[in-house]
Amino acid sequence: MTAEAAPAAAGFASLDALVRPRSVAVIGASDEPARIGGRPIAYMKERGFAGDLWPVNPRRATVQGLTAYASVEALPAAPDVAIIAVPAEQVIPTLDSLGRKGCRAVIVFSAGFAEMDAAGEAQQEKLAAVARGHGIRMLGPNCLGLFNDSIRFYGTFTASFEKGFPIAGRIGIASQSGAYGTHVFSAALDRGLGAPVVITTGNEAEVALGDVIGWMAQAPEVEVICAYAEGIRESTQFIAALDLARRNRKPIVMMKVGRSQLGGAAAKSHTASIAGDDTVTQAVLEEFGVVRARTTEEMLDIAYAATKRIYPARNTLGVLTVSGGAGVLISDAAEQAGVAMPPMPEAAQERLRSLVPFCAPRNPVDCTAQVTNNLPLISEFAESVARDGGYASILSFWSQTAAGRSVGPSLQEQMRKVRAAFPDRLWVMSMLAPNKVREYEGDGWVCFEDPSRAVNAIAAMGVFGAAFARAEQPAAEVPLPRVALPEATPSEAVAKALLAEAGVPAVPEHACSDSEAAVMAAEKIGYPVVLKILSPDILHKSEIGGVLLDVTNADAVKHGFATLLERARHHAPAARIEGVLVAKQIKGAVEMALGVFRDPVFGPVAMVGLGGIFIEVLKDVSFRRCPFDAAEAERMIRSLKGFPLLDGARGRPKADVAALAGALSALSAFAAAAGPRLASIDVNPMLVLPEGQGCYAADAVIELDGGGH
């Protein structure tokens, strides 16, 4: 574990009493194994939990053959963890009794809290306060509980074990939904995947998803983390957990559902209006190399591949196939997944053609079905792909050939030898041979029937590897500027001055209170100029005709000045008018847009995308938590589909991407330093000139909370 990860790991270790208890009390214990208060006892008895198990039931002397206790106070000692399965109105006094007894952790099955109504939410807040007052880690309420089969602890009432208990493995499942978390467990069991640790968080009154992921990130029981989330309500522990998992090289595959839009005040900002909760969460997941699964099948595909613990930092895919059609399908899937498939070296291609003249050895390497007539050729081709191609990941497509009685045994033996000679590669097999899968897996292969699913899993391993490699590099320090925000939402001129001081350059301009001053400013700047109405109350000037372009002489400046004042009086009679902004008109630039908005969970989030109206029409944007350095800013810019516009597409000059990245990074630092009063920033357009000539903010809006709107 790295030094940086140690403090976070120590904090997450406080869940040990919850997940690795040596003594368990069940409050509301039932003698009937099928009831909610009876299942945990029945499961732990069946599985052989080695710790103390203390049922609490005032109406029975024994519960399922165990001595029962009349109350919490009557327990022989303070339990490490207590399972609470009593009616909602009894939960708070029960928790208080456990706290006075010295209990360290509780699992609250009981429902009837925040999931119900406002009164239930108030009761849940009281419950959380009691837990915090006693220093108790509390899972739930309204949760299905957890299990840790490595110590045979079953603090859950799920019925999923009726189809089987966990098998050996190192997959951990963290889920806000109890039913779906155990659904994933059952689906993993059907696929022969070991998921011995499952923790469901329910209402998250105290322990949240981030705490659970963090515990798994430092627990030896877990090597791969599957997570299910409906919404992230607490960011500090969540981010610390993702960071710890990345530093400890534990991949996280997450299914995050829900794509709601930010509403209310946030929708005032153009930046916020195109970013919902889901967009921000996605940006955070990408930051830490968490792979987002769209389906349960995809989640388990990725978790399965990750159990091999081979994560290429620079992932390239080599394909060996007996089917040209499968090669095309795999190539399409790789392009969509973003996995590079470089060609084989020319010399290697020539050598393979000398072995099979009608093969297609570029990549995919189609050795054709003819190799089955000369089986030693299989290893010749496979070795060349690994040795000469140097690919980090290798996908072999053999379809039903792998199971054939005539070819299968020799194929398996030859591929086993080649794989063993290159153990650092991720070896994946696509085959229709269910009776052979366990044998191939024993040889170290990852096996899929569908090659497209195989490619998606391979792509995920590369995402993990790149994230783990980034974690090994020292984090760049982002210096924060001193920011003194005005009392109220500023005008455009003041907004641009604030940003320019922080490192976001603005177009040369002057604020003018009368037409004579405007003429003097225009002549000083040089024609043509742009005229814009200047008002802290008119944030989106183009909507009222408050911007005039191509103003080329003094008469046009005077006429334009009067026109803008008249339009402002007509469309926004109550607005405060400070005058007109006279700015240099820049031509030959690429219009981009920068922005910031304050996410209610993750704080200030920065955005970059194509400028003008295209940002709202195309939504080709990239988001990142603030602050970040210029290297990360450039990565965001290069991730845009419209990046070729900056990179010299169709003979255009290359734009000053370095300057744009510097401005974006400076904007992120400004936002991080500004504090919670900053609601949003829109810089649109940001005019990016050719390489070496810089970039300039042509318009800027800073919105403040309580800014008078």
From TrEMBL:
SMART domains in UniProt: CoA_binding
Keyword tags: ATP-binding, Ligase, Nucleotide-binding, Tricarboxylic acid cycle
InterPro entries: ATP-grasp, ATP_grasp_subdomain_1, CoA-bd, Ligase_CoA_dom, NAD(P)-bd_dom_sf, Succ_CoA_lig_flav_dom, Succinyl-CoA_synth-like
Domain ATP-grasp, residue spans: 496-532
Keyword Ribonucleoprotein annotated: no
Taxonomy, superkingdom: Bacteria
GO molecular function: ligase activity
Descriptive protein name: Acetate--CoA ligase family protein
